[in-house]
Amino acid sequence: MKNIFFKSTLFTIVLLFFACSDTDNLVIDNVTDNTTSGGILRTLEESTDLPIGLPDSAVHLLLEIQDAEDGNLSDKINVYASFTDIVNAGTNNRDEVLMGTIPSSAFILGNRLPQAEVNVTLVELQTALNLTSDDFTGGDRFVIRVELVFKDGRRWSNDNASQTVLGNLFLNSPFVYDANVICPVPEDYLVGNYLMEKTSAEEDPFFPAFGQAFSSTGQIVNITASGSQRNFEFSYYPDPLGTQTGQTDPGFASSYNMKLTFLCGNIEALGTIMTGSLGCGSGSIGQKNAIPPSQYDLSNDTVVIVNILDFEPDGGCDTGNYPVTLRFTKQ
Fold first, then answer.
1. Strand partners of residue 329
2. Residue pLDDT, tens place only, 169-222
3. Out of 69, 156, 202, 277, which could bridge 148 as a Cys pair, Cβ 3.0 to 4.6 Å?
4. Which structural domain range is residue 121 located in?
């Protein structure tokens, strides 16, 4: 565990050096140099909320096409959609269908690399998936999947991308996007500076060697809003050496992003490393919401409780997950 974390930390430092260089080209060079055997679709813009009762709502993605020859290997992007009936336990589920294809002739020239826009309306999703307005409600989900197709016929999507690509916020190439049918949330709800504290007793599988993954003394996080989603950056494994009794190594203070999605009473959570990797050789440790998910109350955002599963996934450490309760207190 120690050696894996140490190597990952060095990689993070190298990646941050490129990311903080003077021009965006250096970022592109760094990513492209590491994708010579395949291709990625880096997400530059993402709007995936589908407010219930607004048929004109749509999914919008702006994707940057990256391959070993600055996009010249890429022929087209296929866009697929499926539907998950969460509220009615799968009664109206729909299998994936092809929504359309974006040929390379429709790519837009960006900062040296080509870009492509994906725009799919709720009406188009309903038509393609044979859904009436009575077949879905707030809390259900459409799933958009994109696939990059090379001129030689090779295809790249979530089924053959590495965990380093899928789980890295810097590369930001998940290939799959959840388009949630939402109940509107006020723009100022759970926004601003909050004290995030771990209030549950159970510790991570490697405690106390590396300190606490989530500090019980807390850290201030700045939460920003984007539709029904809330995002904030936090320090994972932040404890300096000597903080915890029995701690033998310093905390690794890896920068993570937590995305909270409000789904008609439920809070979904997704924690992702922002740069580099942190794990035991198979992707990075992450976080997801507990089952059942936490609830939210729009009349009170002074104190909000979110239950998550840490080590989900466990980054190849073979530890499994464990439950964490986080308390957010408005500052």
1. 195, 303
2. 667 889 999 999 988 899 999 999 999 999 999 999 999 999 999 988 899 999
3. 156
4. 34-182
Assign 240 a pLDDT band (cuts: 50, 70, 90). Answer: confident
Percentage helix, strand, coil, to 5, in the chain? 15, 40, 45
Q: Sign of dihedral through CA atoms 20, 23, 28, 29?
A: negative
Identify whether residues 226 and 267 lie together within a single domain: yes
- pTM for the full model? 0.66
Tokens of 272: 């992702």
Backbone torsions φ then ψ of 273, nearest 5 degrees: -65, 145
Take residue 81 and report the two structure tokens written for it: 């959609």
DSSP string computed for 133-179? GGG--TT-EEEEEEEEEETTS-EESTTTS-HHHHTBTTT---SEEEE
What distance in Å separates the CA atoms of residue 204 and residue 221, rounded to the nearest whole number? 21
Tokens (6 digits) for 16: 């941050």
Radius of gyration of the chain (CA): 21
Distance in Å from the first CA to the final CA of the chain: 36
Whether residues 101 and 229 fall in one domain: no
